[in-house]
Structure formats: structure tokens, C-alpha cells
Amino acid sequence: MKFLSQLMENAGRHFGENGRFKRLYPLYEAFDSFLFGSNQTTETAPHIRDSIDLKRIMTTVLIALLPCTLMAMWNTGYQANSALAAMGIAGPEGWRGAIMTLAGCDPASLLSNFLHGALYFLPIYIVTMLVGSFWECVFNLIRGHEFSEAFLVTGLLFTLTLPPTIPLWQVAIGVSFGLIFAKEAFGGVGRNFMNPALVSRAFIYFAYPAQITGDAIWTAVDGVTGATVLSQFAAAEPGQALGSINVTWMQTFLGTIPGSMGETSTLACLFGAAVLLITRIAPWRVMASTLTGGLLCAMFFYFTGSDVNPLYNIPPHWHLVLGGFAFGLVFMATDPVSAAHTHTGQWLYGLLIGVLAIMIRVANPAYPEGIMLAILLGNVFAPLFDYFVIQANIKRRTLRHG
After folding, report:
1. What range defines the domain where residue 247 resides?
2. Which of 14-23, 233-242, 344-353, 373-382 has the lowest mean pLDDT?
């Protein structure tokens, strides 16, 4: 390791201010930071000295996302293998079928489910990372900025919000749009006013709705439809919400249901929440207020009832395990850049997201998954919340000491 460190240090002279390759310094710094981390530390007051840095923060978030990632691969394979078994088909077609002949397509096999799901998850993730890294490289070289580990999280979050059947070219276009127009256009890392992963997902949602909505996209088997639980609720007869679905609350909690690859398991999201809260990476006020806002709005609709809209009759505790509510609450709403920063602002921000997520889900059946739009709108209002909170504090202190 000392030899490699010395080798990198010697090579660094050529990428410095007077080096021959100074324009390529961001590439050198990215590789050096990946291997050894930053060598810049604070030594004197009043600078903050802490063991945490951006690299450790992103690593912690990646660890928190690990259960959702593993569940994404397993459940994608489980849904596909279950569909194939029901149809009496031995395996999928094409190159995936050739690989699956090694492990079979048994829905009772952990290895088979995981391998089959990985054949859909990994290509999407690889395309996301390659295209995203390209844009990161282009803008960093133009600006002379250092590479950041933040895109590792953004790329994984984006992948986890997608269905397994999405065309790879749409993945490339979506992540390009999100990075360019929600991040790089505003200055890069730490300056995005919206969550880039959600902007990427929203772009695909509105630009290519046929590949991101409907019942035929959630099971990775051609010709097989598998409605999400939210879609089943929406299609129910008024007053027969729970009787219209074919899954239990525990199944939705565990995540063994059709849906976006990484958003189905509330249990996996809870593990991620525990990691982020224990390490103090994510603000607990945002999580608590989003949960509170969602429950209050769900209770309002449930006790109000409706003779026309079956989504009114979903019990409040069901809303917590449906769609991407838990995933958005834990990983998206708590984004340290696009979320509110003041304590009071975080409460207002989270309440807005929780209320809007359920309101969009229930009151507008055309968008049964409301958490994405709710968080993006919350991102827009977050600076406003912080502004009014700060102004109120200034005014209060002025009156106190004036």
C-alpha cells in the first residue's frame, strides 16, 4: 500500500497546477480519493473537526441501501420465476434463459431468484453508472471540480425506483436529464435544489409513460401482467378495498409483491432508516414529520370515506407499506442538499411531503403513486421554509434585544 501511495504521489506532480496534465486533475483526484480518501483535514479553531466526510457519508448511505438492493434482485427474480412456474415454462428466452439454465427458475430457490433478478437489475445499474459517470466526468473536467462519491448513491437510488422491464436506452436518457438539468445546471454537487434521482425518474414517468406505468411492466416475463397492490385498490368496488386484493399486509411489508425493484420492501427500508438515524446521516425530524403527515392524511380520507373512490377506504396502516412511501420517506425526502435545514423547516417540509403523498395517491387515482411528486414539490418549498424560519428567528431576537 505504501508503494501504491508513493506511486500516486509521484504521478500527482504531473496533474498539479504546473503539470502537463493539469486539465485532467479531476480524474487523477477521483482515483486517488477512491483509493486513499482525502488528505485535507482541519487543524485549528474555529473550523469543525469531525471523523465524518463526504466519502464516509456516501458509504454509510450505500450500506443503508444494501438490504433494498438485495431485495430488489431477489424479488425481481421471485416474481419472474413465479410467473414462469404458473405458465409451465422452464425459463426465460434469450441470453437470460441461457444463464438461468445453470440455476433453474424455481421460485422456492433463493439462488435462482437472486440470479434471475440480477440479470435485470445489473444491466440497468451498469447503464446508469456508465452514463452518469460520463456526464460527471464531462462537467468536472470543464469546471475543474473534484469527483464526488455522491453519484454512487444517486445512481443506485435511481435504479431502485425503476421497473425491471424498462428499456436501457430510456435509463440512459433519464439519468442524463436528471444529472444535467437538476444538478450540473445549478453548479454540481451540493447545489441541486431537487433530488437528481427523483428528477430522472419523473422525466421517464412523463416522457415514456407506457414503459413506467401499467400492469405489464412489473413482472420480468413477456406477456405477464401483475398489478401492483395500489392498482388493485384503485380498481376495487367502493367499500370493497381490502376484499379486492390478493395479498396480505405482511406480504406488502416484506416486499414479496410486484412494484419498482427496490421500493417494495418496507422491512428493508426500516433497516436503512436505522442505519441512517444511528449514524445521524439523515435528519430524524424529516422522517418523523413525513410519517406523521402521511398518517394524518390517510386517517382523514379513511374516516371521511367515499362511495365513489375505493382508495378512500384503504386503512391508514396499509398506506405505510404501499408503493414507494417507505423508500421515499427514508432515502429521498432526507436528501441533505434538497431537504430543509432548519429544525422547524424540517418539520414543515416533512409534513408537506407526507400529506401530499397520500393526497395525490387517494384523491387523484390517475397518479396512485404520489410520493415522487410530493418529494419534488417539497424540494421546491424547502428553501422557502428555511427562509421564513430564519427571518422569524431574526425578528424575535431583534425584538428581544432591541
Report:
1. 234-402
2. 14-23
